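Design job #97: recover the sequence.
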């Protein structure tokens, strides 16, 4: 969903130099079109990281449909370019939280609304304050600002913990019972496998980034740490499942 995307601040200035603009097409239709060009640039070992970022930024500016497209704001924020052609950003430790983060549980005041920038496959969110959505700077995001990548949902906290617990225990009958009580379609075998893999990957990530002694079966909440020249401070929620999966389970919904 992309309702009332917040006014963007500090879009930043892009400096282009030492690149051959003849390699760029006059325009790109969407992410699929842009991504084809990105891969040719990212896989070119003769280009510096700075040049690759500049090519991608220029191509992005020429892209007509920028839905869910996030490209690097600065080469300085990139840790390395992986073999699969993706950027590895120099993210802060502990899942990007300031000290004082906590595990989501029975006593947690769950937000009424959540949002994020980027595709629905991600599991990092922010709550939405009454004053309006957090800025890119408050979220410490290393991307060029793009309102077409903004998504917001209402959050169904009434059955959130029960649904995540069902996934945790692989209690598919129990999960389908909860879904049926809300008029939602049951999950099938293939989706159960995907939910299990997603949940296990979340637990593994928490152990790797925070530590094996930190238990957070229902998610982690806290404030965003400073990074990429930004102060952070946004109210952040890292959940066990992606936005798309939580939509499918009726945890996130749009009115």
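Job complete. Output follows.
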């Amino acid at each position: 969903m992309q309702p009332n995307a917040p006014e963007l601040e500090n879009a930043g200035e892009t400096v282009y130099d030492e690149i051959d603009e003849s390699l760029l097409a006059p325009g790109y239709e969407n992410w699929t079109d842009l991504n084809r060009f990105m891969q040719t640039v990212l896989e070119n070992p003769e280009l510096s990281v700075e040049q690759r970022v500049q090519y991608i930024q220029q191509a992005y500016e020429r892209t007509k449909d920028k839905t869910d497209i996030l490209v690097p704001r600065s080469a300085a924020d990139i840790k390395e370019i992986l073999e699969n052609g993706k950027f590895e950003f120099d993210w802060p430790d502990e899942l990007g939280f300031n000290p004082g983060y906590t595990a989501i549980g029975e006593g947690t005041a769950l937000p009424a609304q959540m949002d994020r920038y980027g595709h629905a496959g991600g599991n990092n969110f922010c709550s939405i304050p009454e004053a309006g959505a957090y800025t890119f700077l408050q979220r410490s995001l290393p991307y060029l600002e793009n309102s077409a990548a903004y998504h917001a949902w209402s959050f169904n906290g009434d059955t959130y913990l029960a649904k995540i617990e069902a996934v945790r225990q692989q209690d598919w009958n129990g999960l389908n019972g909860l879904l049926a009580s809300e008029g939602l379609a049951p999950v099938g075998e293939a989706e159960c496998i995907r939910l299990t893999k997603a949940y296990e990957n979340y637990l593994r990530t928490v152990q790797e980034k925070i530590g094996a002694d930190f238990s957070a079966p229902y998610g982690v909440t806290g404030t965003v740490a400073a990074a990429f020249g930004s102060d952070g401070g946004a109210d952040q929620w890292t959940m066990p499942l992606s936005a798309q999966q939580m939509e499918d389970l009726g945890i996130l919904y749009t009115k």
